[in-house]
Design goal:
The complex is a heterotetramer of chains A (484), B (667), C (318) and D (220).
Chain A lengths: L1 E2 L2 E2 L2 H18 L3 H24 L12 H30 L5 H23 L3 H19 L5 H36 L8 H7 L5 H19 L7 H8 L2 H28 L7 H18 L6 H22 L2 H32 L10 H4 L1 H14 L6 H16 L1 H26 L15 H15 L3 H14 L1
Antiparallel strand pairs in A: 1-2
Helix pairs in contact in A: 1-2, 1-4, 2-3, 2-4, 3-4, 3-10, 3-13, 4-5, 4-10, 5-6, 5-10, 6-8, 6-9, 7-10, 8-10, 9-12, 10-12, 10-13, 11-12, 11-17, 12-13, 12-17, 13-15, 13-16, 13-18, 13-19, 15-17, 15-18, 16-17, 16-18
Chain C lengths: L1 H34 L9 H11 L2 E4 L4 H19 L16 H21 L3 H32 L4 H9 L7 H17 L18 H4 L5 H26 L11 H27 L9 H21 L4
Chain D lengths: L2 H23 L3 H26 L2 H29 L11 H22 L5 H23 L3 H21 L6 H21 L2 H5 L4 H5 L7
Helix pairs in contact in D: 1-2, 1-5, 1-6, 2-3, 2-6, 3-7, 4-5, 5-6, 6-7
The chains are: A mainly alpha (484), B mainly alpha (667), C mainly alpha (318), D mainly alpha (220).
Chain lengths: 484, 667, 318, 220
């Protein structure tokens, strides 16, 4: 991609721009400048990512672009871009009401860019060790951002996230080492045994038993990052106590990146016939988190914690879809990942507005949103309808494909899936009724932040539900074939 | 050609939604939206009639939207054309009614955007030709109607009704999704053509029947799954509840017919027994519930449940497992004719209820009365609706019920023993529910329109606007025409039954004097026109003879009240007291009805108080425990939110150890 | 030529039924009086009452609506049309195929529907008592009646009254248990529908007991005359249905000559006389039941009808 | 890989597991920190020995980091923090020592079964190393689960991390080992600073994790 004569390889651009922006925003004194820099940086990264789609560079030892991470890079940078627009006005408001100090805002923007850098690195990393380091860095930055408010709950949430995250990362590292051990006799020592594109071609010859143990550790390690049921404990508190843009990025992107890492390793196992199929493990974890999170929606009193549990529920559905396998279910899983991150970040934008307008996150203190703020209220209802899987929005198509293909293969599992989805929808709308409908409760200040990012996301989800661009369909289909 | 016109109309309707939002501040938006939706549904109605009467070949179109490698298949065959006709007729009359009724709508900002989308959703369900488009438009229809039910969200009951409705709708859709999953198989053959070609096995077909019965049955209102219907329909604005009761339940019947008769392959012998059992119970329970109500729209909603039962009795007898193709054709035609008739008179009755609601602001019959003097035209149209729904000649309700009875009478030749015993019992239930329906509508009409006004609101009632009246009289006229000339409508249904069953009833128009002959003239026939003419002639003959020869003098005087000084309006019979004898006969068993009279001690002037205690057994035995169970599970799991970090770590540790143990044990 | 003959027979049938109805009621009252060892009015007294009522002017309640004034004509028309379709002296009437037995029952049902509405129109509690009890009785009587129709239709293979009558007259009907049950059930339903003694006392004005009378309490003059006439028409309809189905001897076949018609008429009048006598005999031998014991009475009728149909469904021989 | 090299590596790895057991036994913070220092020392020795066998110079850096940073700097800082927080005399243990030991033995047995079943044709050293490394990781996790005090949980986590470094060094020729151990050191540094920087002491008057949990979001 030539840029005033300077040929900048988009792959490098996607990584360098956030890194530079992080350094700059740590230095710049005025917080408003860092906010604008933040938006500028994410726009540039988005342009690089889109350019990346067309100029597909050859895989190198450390960096790799193929169909799978092509779409996810664009998705990550796009959601990062819209969230930066939202967070510019959101953080401004948080500053006015004194919850943040200017220095902490500068720190926030620096960490935001480091997070972007870490996620992009994780997506493009070809070396499984590098991918591990990138995800570790992403966890560290989100821990710091969750604790930025310095309240008791925020610190407790950050500390819990930190400990659980570190244990998860340690397990993932052990899994990576085991993969290296399995690859060493076949691929030879040194760097090659860690390069994913080499591994996936030679995976057939690895020792299956070692791969199984490796996958168990990877599943539990990265599974903690994905927020699957027994390992989910950090997710609700991290979402509830951190600033809302971070909840949107956390829910929308970080869970996807962790699941993307898991998919990379699932491809390895799919290539090795003798290894135990990862299906049953992922299906059990998926169903467990789906049913568990659905039941947890009912007694939630904090709006962000409720949508955090909804994220766990949807990650459960996606893991179930990849666990079931087969071209249709895999396609549905990939589609669900994309559409879920768009919808969930849109919902968190709306929740951010609601929290600022109502001055609280407790559901009991807010009500009658469609009366006091019609546009915001109906935006939230559209988002919740999308996340609940109502047509014509995207998640309906993926749930349609998952349930129908699952029922044909394993009827009993599909019935549990349907039960979980139904309980989830019932819980979600029970809470929505008290938020959006009925007599208005609680204060109703004038909203500052713009609704544009939220409605862009919802429009994209609507388009994904009705008409999928064919080029995206082709990528998803051949990745679905790869996933086994 | 007709399919493209219909799709254009659907597209126009879909476009009206955002338009209504854009123009929400302008004054004429109500007229614009309802007028446009009326025109669109009228055009689509004409196209549907052209297709059905012209017995044209089924057309199909594939749009590039929807599931990427599949596209959206839409097809307009005889069955779809008939149900499209029913949907558009309902839509047209509801929009005409809404032109007048919409003026008084307080939350029109929440009704206008969703109303045309709701109509488009129903039209698309009927045209869908692959599982994805079918379920998409089915769920879209539910979402739009949920939004309409929630339009008066400030009333807590409406919010609860909307919630119950949405959960039941999602349950129904997910069940249908499982049914389509079975039909499509694991390699995803989602179009109906592929499903038909796949010829599902008997076991698969049975499972699909059960799932379709639960899925479509919950949307139509079969008894154990009907609980949302009497909550949701009254909560919506009247023209929407007319559409939900009269038309959306018919789209659910269409879903059932399409899946079971068209896609599920050869029916087994016990299929009709299962559907018959559900249908019989639905019919009687629906009308018994209705008798106990005194909220006008809730009563009409429960009556929808009863009429759905009658339709499903017809469908149950229509399975062609027993080789008697003509009997099945008769039963199917009876069911489809009742679908058409019910959509007519149920919409008419809901319009009447809507007109009463706007005039008096009250839905509770105990506060109405004497409206016939203040709202004569509405009263007349409502009377025709009541006579039609009570299945009394010469109107259309009687015709479809009569055909259903004829279908029942054809069944002794059936080889299946179970059916031999079940069908007379269901015949008795059908007759019982017909009589109870007549009793219920005497109560409705007598308490609401006749007698003296019980409250000042009823006293100050005024006639509704001309649009509402036009819609009501349009439907009343249709009821009369369908009652007098049923032969035309039965012949229109012939292509539908020959498409689904391969045979249809003998052509009716050839018989003399336009009477209808189900199987053979010697067997039984009924001539609506002659009976109507006879009644008119003998009535006018008697009137003119008496007025000319005997006296025609008339004077007014106070009614005989056994000498009591002031007969206040409260001494009149109310809805609950009118239903008291029937409640005493049936209520003690079905609703555990108990009456507690508490008389004041002698000498004290405290009024005596009679309280009636009714239990909705289905809600208490099926749904309440479910809700308590989920609440209990939610409470138990809620503790997991408040664990210490150490306990969360032990969760992770436990998961790791378990997985390692699984690995160690796994071969 | 045949058409005019059929037309004249049809009109003769309609007139015959209309004229005989008051006579039959008068005859029944006369026999009842004689059984109670009192003189009793002459059988033609009902004609005098009708003439008297026709001449008097109508006294309408203030609250009565236009429906109140139209309902008598509607009831009379429905009942008269139903009565004219029942074969009395000849089967195969010209218009008999326009409505079968189910349609006749439904016509009576609409008559009852409008009568109940009339009861509620005036706005006093008496009308309410009458209407609510009437619809309760109807809600049990009608299913029993439909069950009887099912039994007979299954035996005769058709629901047309004339074909059923011809089949009943033909030898192959034979003695069947279900027919016996159907006859008893039909008699019980007839008693309930026509407000005879065990269910409701036609002669009483005591508010607590009356059902049919309570609904027509507010009618006067020509309206009351029409309603009385419809009531007696309905009574004669039920008796002629019982006669033509369970005592079909003497019914002239479709194209019969004048003398067959004459035999038909005489046997019909004889059957009416026997029917009237038996009815009054039964009425004087039983006391009126409490209103809330009527459901058991009609429950028995419904069970008998259902049993008859079940037997009929199960096998051809029953 | 002659017998003697294998035996020494085997010895060092085995002793690391033994020290992990010792850590489980301690219930006083002082002794816990000393045992942890010993743990780091043994790790450093084992990594150095691996470096010698595989003659991979970069492993020496890891050994040096293990020695300097983990064996000396961390215990001393934690030591001083405990004194500042005044919690050095607390005795805390959630589950009885006996049960913890039994669980530890079970875990070691489990890791042996899982690992030995796995690698038959790979060279025995790697197989042994992984088995021991897995044992140390599981024991570290067990320690985190059975301790109530935040500092002892951190020590548990650090011993878990030592197990990982052992596994990484056991995998011959694995690149990025140094980078990973450096990343881990930063992580641990964050933890220690976290305890200090977040002024856990001043915020919650005690480092007892129990107190920490009273401020959970959405109090019941």
């Amino acid at each position: 991609m030539t840029f005033e004569g300077v040929t900048v390889n988009p792959l490098i651009g996607v990584l360098v721009v956030p890194a530079v922006a992080a350094a700059l925003s740590a230095v710049l004194p005025d917080y408003r400048a860092t906010a604008r820099l933040n938006v500028l940086a994410t726009t540039l990264t988005l342009i690089c990512a889109v350019a990346l789609l067309f100029a597909k560079p050859q895989p190198r030892s450390y960096l790799l672009i193929d169909d799978l991470n092509g779409t996810f890079i664009v998705l990550t940078t796009f959601v990062g871009f819209t969230t930066s627009i939202f967070s510019a006005s959101y953080i401004g408001h948080e500053l006015d009401i004194g919850r943040l100090t200017p220095s902490s805002v500068r720190f926030y923007h620096a960490m935001y860019q480091v997070l972007m850098f870490a996620m992009n690195l994780a997506l493009v990393a070809n070396n499984i060790g590098l991918m591990w380091v990138a995800i570790e860095l992403a966890t560290l930055t989100t821990v710091l951002m969750v604790g930025i408010y310095r309240t008791h709950e925020a610190l407790e949430a950050a500390w819990k996230y930190f400990i659980l995250g570190s244990v998860g990362i340690a397990l993932a590292l052990f899994g990576t080492i085991l993969v290296y051990m399995a690859a060493r006799p076949v691929v030879g020592e040194g760097l090659d045994a860690m390069v994913w594109s080499v591994l996936v071609t030679r995976a057939g010859a690895f020792d299956p038993a070692l791969l199984d143990v490796a996958f168990v550790f990877l599943l539990l390690g990265y599974g903690t990052k994905v927020g699957l049921a027994p390992l989910h404990a950090w997710l609700p508190d991290a979402h509830a106590e951190g600033p809302t843009p971070i909840s949107a990025v956390l829910s929308g992107l970080l869970l996807n990146v962790a699941l993307y890492a898991l998919l990379r390793f699932k491809m390895l196992l799919a290539a090795n016939a003798a290894a135990l199929t990862p299906g049953p493990l992922m299906v059990t974890l998926g169903l467990l988190s789906l049913v568990f999170a659905s039941f947890m929606l009912y007694r939630r009193r904090d709006i962000k914690r409720m949508f955090a549990y909804s994220s766990i529920e949807h990650m459960g559905i996606i893991t179930f879809a990849f666990g079931i396998g087969g071209p249709i279910a895999n396609f549905a899983g990939l589609l669900h990942m994309t559409v879920h991150s768009l919808t969930k970040s849109a919902i968190f934008f709306a929740v951010g507005h609601v929290a600022q307008v109502k001055g609280t996150q407790r559901i009991a203190d807010m009500g009658g949103l469609t009366v006091t703020h019609p546009v915001l209220g109906w935006g939230l209802i559209l988002g919740v309808a999308a996340i609940a899987g109502f047509p014509p929005l995207g998640i309906f198509m993926s749930e349609f494909l998952v349930v129908s293909s699952a029922f044909a293969r394993e009827p009993l599992l599909a019935i549990i899936l349907v039960f979980g989805i139904l309980v989830g929808v019932a819980g979600l709308f029970l809470q929505l009724n008290s938020i959006a409908f009925g007599e208005p409760r609680g204060p109703s200040a004038k909203p500052q932040a713009s609704y544009v990012p939220m409605f862009i996301h919802l429009a994209l989800v609507l388009v994904a539900g009705v008409y999928m661009p064919p080029v995206l369909v082709v990528w998803f289909q051949n990745v679905a074939g790869l996933l086994g | 050609m007709t399919l493209t016109i219909i799709l254009v109309c659907a597209a126009v309707l879909l476009a009206l939604g955002p338009l209504a939002v854009a123009l929400r501040h302008s004054r004429a938006v109500t007229q614009l939206v309802y007028g446009a939706s009326m025109v669109a549904s009228a055009v689509s109605f004409a196209a549907a009639i052209a297709h059905l009467l012209g017995a044209a070949a089924p057309e199909s179109i594939t749009l590039p939207v929807g599931v990427p490698w599949l596209g959206a298949h839409l097809r307009n065959d005889a069955l779809s054309a008939f149900f499209l006709l029913v949907v558009d007729l309902g839509a047209m009359s509801a929009s005409l009614f809404a032109l007048g009724y919409g003026q008084h709508e307080t939350a029109s900002g929440r009704v206008l955007p969703f109303y045309p989308a709701f109509l488009a959703g129903m039209m698309l369900v009927v045209l869908a030709d692959d599982a994805y488009t079918f379920l998409l438009s089915w769920e879209f229809m539910s979402l739009m109607s949920w939004a309409l039910v929630m339009s008066h969200h400030r009333v807590p009951e409406n919010v609860r009704a909307g919630y119950v409705y949405l959960v039941m709708a999602s349950f129904g859709t997910l069940t249908l999704l499982l049914a389509f999953g079975l039909l499509a198989g694991s390699d995803g053959l989602y179009t109906f053509a592929q499903m038909r070609a796949a010829h599902p096995s008997a076991a698969l077909g049975a499972l699909v029947l059960i799932l379709a019965l639960i899925g479509a049955g919950s949307k139509a209102g079969l008894v154990p799954l009907h609980v949302w219907l009497p909550l949701a329909h009254p909560a919506a604005p009247s023209h929407v509840s007319a559409l939900m009761s009269g038309v959306m339940t018919k789209v659910a019947v269409y879903g059932f017919v399409r899946i079971v008769f068209d896609l599920a392959g050869e029916p087994a012998w016990w299929w009709s027994m299962l559907v018959l059992a559900f249908a019989g119970v639905t019919t009687v329970m629906g009308v018994l519930y209705a008798l106990m109500q005194h909220d006008l729209k809730r009563l009409l909603a429960y009556h929808t449940v009863e009429n759905i039962g009658i339709i499903f009795i017809g469908l149950a007898l229509a399975f062609k497992t027993h080789g008697m193709v003509f009997a099945s054709a008769l039963a199917l035609t009876a069911a489809l004719l009742h679908v058409f008739n019910h959509s007519l008179f149920k919409s008419l009755l809901f319009f009447g209820a809507g007109a009463v609601l706007t005039a008096t602001g009250k839905r509770d019959m105990e506060h109405l009365g004497g409206l016939i003097h203040r709202m004569p035209q509405t009263a007349f149209a409502f009377l025709i609706g009541c006579v039609a729904i009570s299945a009394l000649p010469p109107l259309n309700g009687f015709v479809s019920e009569w055909l259903t009875f004829q279908a029942i009478l054809l069944s002794p030749q059936l080889p299946v023993w179970g059916l031999k015993l079940l069908i007379p019992a269901v015949g008795a239930l059908l007759a019982l529910s017909a009589a109870l329906a007549a009793a219920c509508f005497v109560k409705v009409y007598g308490v609401t329109f006749l007698g003296r006004p019980r409250t000042s609101a009823a006293e100050r009632a005024k006639e509704t606007d001309s649009f509402s009246l036009a819609a009501m009289f349009f439907l009343a006229a249709l009821c009369l025409v369908a009652g007098i000339l049923p032969g035309l409508f039965i012949d229109a249904l012939a292509p539908v039954s020959s498409a689904l069953i391969g045979a249809h009833m003998p052509a009716q128009t050839s018989t003399q004097w336009l009477s209808i002959v189900p199987i053979a003239a010697s067997r039984s026939s009924y001539d609506g026109l002659l009976v109507f003419l006879f009644m008119v002639i003998s009535g006018t003959l008697a009137a003119s003879a008496i007025h000319r020869f005997a006296s025609n003098r008339l004077r007014r005087a106070p009614a005989w009240d056994c000498g009591y000084p002031d007969a206040s309006p409260t001494t009149q019979y109310t809805a609950m007291s009118f239903a008291q004898p029937i409640r005493r006969v049936f209520g003690t068993v079905v609703f555990r009805a108990r009456e507690h009279g508490d008389m004041p001690p002698p000498g004290s002037t405290r009024p005596a108080r009679l309280t009636v205690e009714l239990h909705d057994l289905i809600w208490e035995t099926l749904y309440a425990p479910l809700a308590v169970g989920i609440g209990f599970a939610a409470d138990r799991l809620n503790h997991l939110q408040f664990l210490t970090i150490r306990q969360f770590l032990s969760l992770v540790f436990g998961a790791l150890v378990i997985l390692l143990l699984v690995l160690a044990v796994w071969p | 030529m045949a058409l005019t003959l059929d037309l004249t027979v049809q009109c003769a049938q309609m007139l015959l039924v209309l004229l005989l109805a008051p006579l039959f009621t008068g005859f029944a009252r006369k026999v009842k009086a004689r059984l109670l060892r009192r003189q009793g009015p002459s059988p033609i007294q009902p004609y005098r009452d009708l003439a008297r009522l026709m001449r008097k002017d109508v006294v309408l309640a203030e609250n009565a609506s236009w429906l109140f004034r139209v309902i008598p004509y509607l009831i009379f028309a429905a009942t008269w049309v139903a009565a004219s379709l029942v074969p009395t002296f000849r089967t195969g009437l010209l218009f008999s195929w326009s409505a079968d037995l189910i349609a006749i029952i439904a016509l009576l049902g609409s008559g009852r529907f409008f009568l109940a509405l009339a009861g509620l129109d005036v706005g006093t509690s008496f009308g309410g008592i009458g209407s609510s009890r009437e619809v309760m009785i109807a809600s049990l009587a009608e299913p029993a009646m439909i069950m009887i129709v099912f039994t007979l239709a299954l035996i005769a293979g058709s629901t047309q009254l004339s074909t059923m009558a011809e089949f009943m007259a033909s030898p192959e009907v034979g003695l069947r248990v279900s027919l016996g049950l159907a006859l008893i059930a039909l008699i019980m339903v007839a008693i309930a529908e026509n407000a005879r003694i065990p269910v409701d006392n036609p002669a009483t004005h005591l508010e607590l007991t009356m059902v049919h009378e309570a609904m027509v309490l507010e009618y006067s003059g020509r309206h009351l005359a029409l309603i009385e006439l419809s009531a007696s028409l309905k009574l004669i309809l039920y008796v002629s249905v019982i006669a033509c189905l369970f005592a079909p001897w003497g019914l002239a076949p479709a194209g019969a000559g004048v003398e067959a018609l004459a035999i038909g008429v005489t046997t019909y009048i004889l059957k009416l006389a026997v029917g009237g006598f038996l009815l009054t005999l039964f009425e004087t031998s039983i006391a009126k039941m409490r209103v809330f014991r009527v459901p058991e009475f009609l429950g028995v009728a419904l069970m008998l009808g259902l049993l008859a149909t079940l037997l009929r469904f199960v096998s051809g021989s029953f | 890989m002659s017998g003697i090299d294998f035996d020494i590596a085997h010895l060092l790895a085995g002793s690391l597991v033994l020290v992990s057991f010792l850590e489980l036994y301690q219930d006083r913070l002082y002794s816990l920190l000393n045992i942890y220092a010993a743990h780091a020392l043994v790790l450093a020795a084992s990594v150095a020995w691996q470096a010698f066998i595989q003659d991979a110079p970069h492993l020496y850096i890891t050994a040096a980091i293990a020695l300097v940073f983990k064996a000396i700097v961390i215990p001393v800082t934690l030591h001083r923090i405990i004194v500042r927080l005044g919690i050095h005399r607390e005795i805390e243990n959630v589950v009885g020592v006996g049960i913890t030991m039994l669980a530890g033995i079970g875990l070691v047995a489990l890791s042996m079964v899982v690992m030995l079943r796995v690698t038959r044709e790979a060279d025995p050293l790697a197989r042994e190393d992984l088995a021991f490394a897995l044992a140390v990781v599981l024991l570290g996790l067990l320690m985190m689960v059975t301790r109530r005090n935040a500092v002892s949980q951190v020590v548990g986590f650090m011993s878990l991390e030592n197990g990982l470094v052992l596994a990484a060094t056991g995998a011959k020729g694995m690149p990025l080992v140094v980078e990973i151990s450096v990343a881990f050191s930063i992580l641990i540094a964050f933890i220690v600073i976290g305890i200090f920087l977040f002024r856990i002491r001043e915020r919650f008057d005690t480092v007892d994790v129990q107190a920490l949990d009273r401020f959970r979001g959405e109090r019941r």
